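Researcher: Go.
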Amino acid sequence: MIFGLGKSKGIIGLDIGTSSIKLAELKETKRGYQLVSLGESFLQPESIVNKAIVDPEAVIDSISSLIDEHKIKTSNAAISISGHSINIKKVSLPLMEEKELKDAIPWELEQYIPHSINDVNYDFQILPGENAEGNMDVLIVAAKKDVADTYVYIVTEAGLNPVVLDVDAFALENMYELNYEETDEVVALINIGASVTNINILKEGISIFTRDITTGGYQFTDAIKSEFNVDYDEAERMKFSMGAGTIPPELDRLARDFTDSVSGEIKRTIDFFSKTIWKDAVQQIIISGGSSKVPCFLETLRETLGTRVDLIDPFQNIAYSDSDFDPEYIEDVGPKMGVAIGLSLRRLGDR
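Model: Structure:
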């Protein structure tokens, strides 16, 4: 699902998260995709709060530094947003031509969004097949213009040309399509960001349910700050060093409290989906995001949901040179690069 903003050839994926900005650039070859650039720039605390940009200059500087550090020559960028500024609805409509559908979408939107139709950018996608009533299912996405315009502004000010505005959950789906084999199972893609957790549930590779949960890694960081009386930077360092060496009992307890809380929120969403949206249960969950690497997270989620849970690998079908990229670095940052990789695959005109 894409809001087209301009013309594009080469493109970089720019995942503007609450705690950091991730960048990915791919080159398409006869053998598939090859990694050209990959990087991350950390933001000062509260530069972005709940996906709303509070300090534009700090975000612009961070993007500019990332571009300079990695000597990016491509100016076109794909970006994405999520959270409260996005409304995603699947609606059932009588069969009609796409031209008729374009005229009908604004009327449908007015029933489902809490904003005026004049205050949003919107797009839609016809889902494959017919439903039981002989109608067609249509996925409609609306993004608040003021939020979208702010993201476009900061990327432009950083010297890039934003040609695609996507949604985090769908960018992750794009990455999944490249790296994972087709399956008839119901698969949930879950991206645990700093302030928002994106859930996108697929059936045969098609999105059938999405939801953003306003919880994420900052919840854990705040708990560490309070428990150990440390500042933000030290709390983040403690959080991301948990995989190396012995974990203090107090930090282990906080980690388990955090993973219990997030797993519970995910379970409530999955249960709602299974009981009210779809007859089949979720059979596989693929986790991404920086906090997915908290040592006990996968174990806790498996126990809570009683289903298969795997850590994402967004580089399964992407080639890279060991002389340009350290394999250990690729493995380490992989779980939080899913959205950036998905964005780097985007081209204007995609659906």
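Model: The two ends are 5 Å apart (CA to CA).
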